UniProtKB/TrEMBL annotation:
It comes from Halobacillus campisalis. It holds the Pfam family DrrA1-3_C. CDD domains: ABC_DR_subfamily_A. The keyword Acyltransferase does not apply. It comes from the Bacteria. Belongs to the ABC transporter superfamily. Keywords: ATP-binding, Nucleotide-binding, Transport. Signal peptide: none annotated. The lineage of its organism: Bacteria, Bacillati, Bacillota, Bacilli, Bacillales. Residues 4-230 form the ABC transporter domain. GO terms for molecular function: ATP binding. SUPFAM superfamilies: P-loop containing nucleoside triphosphate hydrolases (SSF52540). This is ATP-binding cassette domain-containing protein.
Amino acid sequence: MPVIETEKLSKSFSRNEVVSSISLKVEKGEIFGFLGRNGAGKTTFVNMLTGITLPTSGRMLLLNNNNDIDQIKHRVGVLPDYSTFYDHLSAKDHLKYFCKVSGKPAATSKIEEVLRAVGLIGHEKKKVGKFSFGMKKKLGIAQALIHDPELLFLDEPTSGVDAESAIHIQRLILELQKNGKTIFMTSHNLDEVERICTRIAIMKEGHIHSTGTMKELKKKYQTRSRVQIKLSSHIKKEQKENIKNLLFSYSIEWKDSMLLVDVMAEEEIPTIVHALSKEGIDIFAVHVHEPSLQEIFLRQ
C-alpha cells in the first residue's frame, strides 16, 4: 500500500501554474529521492504534501488518510531546509519544548535516545545558539524524529554539513529505512541520492520528467556503453593496428594502455575480449561506464 499517493496534484499562484498535474506513488519503506533544479516546483509540491500549502486541484493521500492533516501530523516528521531554533535553550530543552507545544510530550529517555541517534549526545545541555550549522541540522532531524513518525520528509538533510556529519546522517537514514520508516527526501547532493535512495523522481517545470530506480534510469538514458579495457603497457604499434582491424566495426580510442570501446549492448563485450586474447594481449581489467545520476539529471 502506498504511503504517499497523489493524483493530478496541481498548484497555481494567480495565473502561474507551479505544479502541474503530478501523479506519484511512494511505497512503504522506500527512501525516495525527489530532485529538480531551482524553480522546478519541488518545494511547492512538498509543501502540499506536508500541509503547508493547499493544492489548487487534484488529490493526495498520506498514510491512507486524505481528509485530515491533523489526524496524521503525529505520524509524520518534517525537516525543512532551514529550521529556526531558540538560541537560549539547550538541545534537550528545545526538544522538550517542541514536544510540549505539539501536544505530545516525550520522556527524557526518549529525548536522549533521539539525540544519541543523530550524534548530539554529549551536547544535549549546550545552548543551541552555540551550535554549528551542522549541529543545528542534526537537531532539526532529532525534532523530526522525536515522535517516532512512520513517514519522514527531509529537505536537504546533509546540505552545509561537514563530510563526517553527512556520512553519519546518511547512515541514520539507512537505519531508519531498515526499521520500517519511509523517507521522502530532496537533495542537491546527487551522489548521495544515487547511493542511498531506492527510487528517484526528477521534476522539471512543474512536471515529473523521469522516475524510477537508478537501474531503470540508467537503462532509459544509456544509448550506448563505453567499455574501458586496461591492457599491458607494452603493446606494440603493430598490435594496435591489428586491434584496430579486428574491431573495425567499433569506435575505439587509446589512452596510454587503456582501450576505450563504444558498444551498443554489453553482450558485445565478450567478443571484444576474445579478439584481444586471440592477439595474445594481456587484459588486466574491464570496466563498463554507466551514466551517473548527475549525467542523467543534466540531460533533463
